[in-house]
Specification:
By secondary structure, the protein is of the alpha/beta class. Helix content is 36%, strand content 17%. It is built from 13 helices and 14 strands. The strands form 2 sheets. The chain has an 8-stranded mixed sheet with strand order 3-4-2-1-5-6-7-8, with helices on both faces. It has a 6-stranded parallel sheet with strand order 11-10-9-12-13-14, sandwiched between helices. Strand 1, helix 1 and strand 2 form a beta-alpha-beta unit. Helix 1 packs across helix 13 and helix 6 packs across helix 11. The longest helix has 17 residues. It is globular. It starts with 22 loop residues before the first strand and ends with a helix. It comes from Devosia crocina. InterPro entries: Glyco_trans_1, Glyco_trans_4-like_N.
C-alpha cells in the first residue's frame, strides 16, 4: 500500500530479450511506483529476478507510468488502459497480452484474478501463463454484482486454464487447490528490512497510531476512526497513510469523518521510504480489514518493530501473532479497547524476527523461478 519513488532511466527503444536469458513479462499492476500490495509484490519480485540474470519486462498502466524506462534492470512498458475503476485492469491486461504475443516471453506472469480474465487469450496464443492469486477480490465491498461475477470468472480461468497458479497465502492455496482440483503453489508475500529515512513530511511531533492502506471500504478505515474516537486518547493521534485511486463516496465520507476530529489525520499516499519512517515511530499499527491476500503492510510494520493489532480474518491469522494482537472483525468496542491496551510508549519496539523468517523475498523469488520452470 505504499508508493515508491526511484530514479528512472528512460529507454530509447527496448532491445529484444537476450537469446540465452529467460524472458519474463509481468502484468496486472498499475505501476511499480504505485501504492498497493500487488504493486509492491511485483516490484520486489521483478528487481530480484533481474539480479538473477532474468530478462524482466513489467507492463504498467497509463497514466500511472507515463513513459518507458528501466528500474534496477527491469524494463517498464506503460500500455493503454481504460480510465475506469472497473475496466482499467482488464483493458490493460488485454493490451499486455497483445504485446506479449508480439514479444514472445518465455513466461507471461499475470497478477490478480481480474487480469486473469485474459488467461485464455494468452494461452490460445501459445504463451506460457502463470497467474498469482492475491486474494478473492469478489469479496471486496466496493464491487457490484457484475464486477464480482467477472472476478469469479477470472479466478475460474486461472484455476482451469493457466499453466501454473500461485497464491500468496497458505490458507488460500489450500482452498484453491481443493476448488480447482489442481496444485496451487503457496508462495507468500515478502518483506525487506525496514530502514527509516529522514522525517515524514510534514514531521509528526506527537505519538500516533498508524494505518496504511488505500481508501477503499474493505480496509475498514471508518471502523478504525470510530473506534479510536470512542475514547479519550490523551495526546495520542491516529494517522492514516494511503489515498484513493478514484474518488468515491467512501473516500469522501472518510475525509468528512476524519475532519471532525483534531487528532485524526489523513496523509494521503506517501513515498515508500517515508512510510518506513512512520512505522518506526508509531505507537501501534492497526489493520482492521475485512479482506486481504497476505498484507505486505503488516509485514512491513512488523519488520520495523511496530506493535500491531489486526482483524481476525484468515490471512491475518496465518501470520500467527499473539492472541492479544487480534480483534473480531467489525467489533468496534473490542477494537477501541485493544488500541488502548496495545499502544506502546514512544520508542518501545517489538522483535518480530522469528515470525518474519518465512517472508524472505530472496527465498520467495527462488520458489517463483521454480514455478516458471524456464532455467
Amino acid at each position: 500500500m505504499t508508493a515508491h519513488t526511484d530514479e528512472r532511466v528512460v529507454l530509447q527503444g527496448a532491445s529484444p530479450a537476450g537469446a540465452n536469458r529467460p524472458y519474463v513479462m509481468i502484468a496486472g499492476l498499475r505501476s511499480m511506483e504505485a501504492q498497493g500490495g500487488i504493486e509492491t509484490h511485483v516490484r520486489e519480485l521483478a528487481l530480484r529476478l533481474a539480479r538473477r540474470d532474468v530478462d524482466v519486462e513489467v507492463v504498467e498502466r497509463l497514466p500511472y507510468a507515463p513513459e518507458p524506462g528501466i528500474l534496477g534492470g527491469v524494463r517498464r512498458s506503460p500500455l493503454w488502459s481504460l480510465r475506469s475503476s472497473r475496466l482499467e485492469a482488464m483493458s490493460n491486461t488485454f493490451a499486455a497480452v497483445l504485446w506479449a504475443i508480439r514479444r514472445r516471453p518465455d513466461v507471461l506472469h499475470i497478477h490478480g484474478i481480474g487480469p486473469a480474465l485474459m488467461t485464455p487469450l494468452a494461452k490460445l496464443a501459445g504463451l506460457r501463463v502463470v497467474v498469482t492469486h492475491h486474494g478473492r477480490d469478489y469479496e471486496r465491498e466496493k464491487w457490484g454484482t457484475f464486477a464480482k461475477l467477472a472476478l469469479r470468472l477470472g479466478e475460474w480461468f486461472a484455476l482451469r486454464v493457466a499453466h501454473e497458479v500461485i497464491a500468496v497465502s497458505t490458507s488460500l492455496s489450500g482452498e484453491l487447490s481443493r476448488a480447482g482440483g489442481r496444485v496451487v503453489h503457496g508462495i507468500p508475500n515478502g518483506v525487506k528490512p525496514s530502514v527509516p529515512v529522514g522525517e515524514p513530511q510534514p514531521p509528526l511531533d506527537f505519538p500516533y497510531v498508524l494505518a496504511v492502506g488505500r481508501q477503499v471500504p474493505e480496509k475498514r478505515h471508518l471502523d478504525l476512526i470510530r473506534a479510536f474516537a470512542a475514547k479519550d486518547r490523551g495526546g495520542l493521534h491516529l494517522v492514516i497513510a494511503g489515498g484513493a485511486d478514484h474518488q468515491s463516496a467512501y473516500s469522501e465520507e472518510l475525509a468528512r469523518v476524519a475532519a471532525e476530529h483534531g487528532n485524526i489525520h489523513l496523509l494521503g499516499p506517501r513515498p515508500w521510504d517515508e512510510i518506513q519512517t512512520l512505522y518506526a515511530s508509531a505507537s501501534l499499527f492497526v489493520l482492521p480489514s475485512s479482506h486481504e491476500g497476505l498484507p505486505i503492510v503488516l509485514l512491513e510494520a512488523m519488520s520495523a518493530g511496530c506493535p500491531v493489532l489486526v482483524s481476525d480474518i484468515a490471512p491475518h491469522l496465518e501470520v500467527d501473532l499473539p492472541d492479544e494482537c487480534y480483534f473480531p472483525l467489525g467489533d468496534l468496542p473490542a477494537l477501541s479497547d485493544r488500541i488502548g491496551a496495545l499502544a506502546a510508549p514512544e520508542g518501545q519496539r517489538v522483535d518480530w524476527t522469528q515470525k518474519l523468517t518465512r517472508y524472505d523475498w530472496d527465498v520467495i523469488v527462488e520458489h517463483t523461478l521454480s514455478v516458471y520452470d524456464v532455467r
